[in-house]
Description:
By secondary structure, this protein is mainly alpha-helical. The chain has 9 helices and 2 strands, in the order αααααββαααα. The relative contact order is 0.16.
Amino acid sequence: MNEAEVFVLADRALNRVVAQIRDDQWDMEVPPNFARRQTDRRPTLREIINYHAYDDAWVPDMLAGKTMAEAGMDNFKGDLLAGDPKGNFEAIVDKATAAAEGLDDFERTVHCSFGDFPAREYLWQANGFRTLRAHDIARMIGADPRLPEELVQGVWDEIRPRAEEFRAIGVFGPAVPVPEDAPLQDRLVGLTGRDPK
């Protein structure tokens, strides 16, 4: 599987979890152990999902090779979820996955706010982020956290060789020991500092 195929699986998995959020859960604060940038304030679930909508909204322009200035720096600021959070999130995911499916040059330069990367690397960074968030949010809202096997394998293949490098810069917490014969999703979750239990 290539990075674009994994991206599509990851983004759709996250969308399936978002579709299960109940109306009374959007204002929940994320738990203290929820993986996020360190701040004094715990964001709400809606804020987390709006951030993912923002991140996804950039995907078509980024994969087309546009700079953020060319695309419009303020295009996606604000509340992208509005009055229909699930429907609006799904529409943004549909555009992002269509852009990934149409990618014809994995070495095309993607101009991120934090540097330039080949499209392959840009997608690689996105894949683990979306997959792990799908897992974490599912657990938070009481939904089934199991992910598609093909997605788990794709993300495992991408993350495992560089997990310690990412742990060293604070992307992942300390690995949680998981038996070698445990399901691959449990091993992936443990590798990235999460307790599969």
